[in-house]
TrEMBL record, chain A:
InterPro entries in UniProt: ESCRT-2_cplx_Snf8, Snf8/Vps36, WH-like_DNA-bd_sf, WH_DNA-bd_sf
This protein's GO CC annotations: ESCRT II complex
Family: Belongs to the SNF8 family.
Top-rank taxon, per record: Eukaryota
Organism for this UniProt entry: Agrocybe pediades
Biological classification of the source: Eukaryota, Fungi, Dikarya, Basidiomycota, Agaricomycotina
Protein name in UniProt: Vacuolar-sorting protein SNF8
Signal peptide: none
Entry's Gene Ontology BP terms: protein transport to vacuole involved in ubiquitin-dependent protein catabolic process via the multivesicular body sorting pathway
Pfam families in alphabetical order: EAP30 (PF04157)
From TrEMBL, chain B:
PANTHER family (alphabetical): VACUOLAR PROTEIN SORTING-ASSOCIATED PROTEIN VPS25, VACUOLAR PROTEIN-SORTING-ASSOCIATED PROTEIN 25
Family from the record: Belongs to the VPS25 family.
Native species: Agrocybe pediades
A biological process term (GO) from this entry: protein transport to vacuole involved in ubiquitin-dependent protein catabolic process via the multivesicular body sorting pathway
Keyword field: Protein transport, Transport
Keyword hit for Zinc: no
The protein's name: ESCRT-II complex vps25 subunit
Amino acid sequence: MRRGVGLAAFDRQEQSKRSFAELSSELSRSQIENLHSQLDQFRTALAHFASTHRESIKSDPTFRHAFRQMCSSIGVDPLAGPRQGGWWAELLGLGDWQYELGVQIVDVCVSTRGRNGGLIEMSELVRLVSKLRGMSGGGITEDDIVRSIKTLQPLGAGYQVVEIDGCKMVRSVVKALDEDQTVILAIAREKGGRVVEDDFIRQKGWTRDRTRAALENMLIRDGLCWLDAQDETAGRAYWIPSAMQWDA
Amino acid sequence: MSLSTHTTPSGFLLPSIHSAPAFFTEQPNPTTQSSATEQWTRLILTYARHRKLFVLRVEDAESTDSDWSEILRNERINRMFRLHLHAFQRSSSPVGRILPNHLSNIISNMVSKNLAAYEPPKQTRSALIFWRLPEEWAEILYDWVVSIGQLNTILTFYDITDPPVESPLTNIPVPLLRRAISILGKTGRSQMIAIADGEGVRFLARSK
């Protein structure tokens, strides 16, 4: 490569620098244009996708799941609500879906609190929310509920998904379950909701005092179970509504 | 166990909570108890409407063949236990049933909410159940009188409680009828009149 010497070389260098700069801005301009047109295309395609599939997204749980996976791989969730979903959510018109579901979850949790003390089994919640949404609302899944509960978090109402003995439950009251209560819930689930003191003395080796204290706490302090004082075998049986199956 | 609804021989659909044994015990937790009382109240009112029952007595909890037995008892509760626990079965026949004291508290709660009234007053063993409020009865009464063209004539209580053609007011207890009449009296639509063999009532056109 020939190297310019002397003053003329400076000019030449300046010249080529300028040309390169021009070229580069030219290139980046065309790149930006390209990107813009791609984005436009993408936007139109997405809007098209949304308008053709909006109903399926809202009503078909499997489709919604696939859509969500697709979205999360590019780092957005249009279902998460207008704020988190940004213009995606507006474009798709799906943002309120999650909030709407959230409201329905609260509705079910609050209206069943009287009988279950604020602890409801996930499958029961799914069933009741589906019932509330009616036929036109389409199916919903556990996954939908878990996500909606996350969107409820800023409200500070203490909605939480807890796992007890491999079974998911939704808690709608701010109340920590202690270890004994967790054991009681697990046994109650095995027994269809009815437990008596002897269950824990026999199966868990608890003392009668400990058993009675734990059960009475759940009954009187926390309102998580109902008492059957006429039980014919034990005289006193505890019924835990969140571990029972309700047909209607 | 699975809790399900059940249709009684009289065609009444019992809610699923009625199959929960604990529903028949008073709950020590006040929140739980108020929820249970609410459910009992609703059950009593809808059943009363279904069977057109007007009076609930605390004794109804102790009888096996009262008008209210279908809701105050649940024979199915212990049949289920018998299958599994026959060895523990006592000789008496323990079925799910509400205890008189519990029923008495529910009635008292209903009275406090104006969904029932002790009748006769000044005792707490028996009450009129308002599956329609006295105000609603008043309107039904008035509409009925208008429909049979008896405005401005004098009717005895008997004419109303036992009309030749069955009406919505057939068998309405006199104390409840009195309340309805006195409600209409406040708007100038009824007038109590003393007649030879007791009391009568005259209904008047609504003043414009």
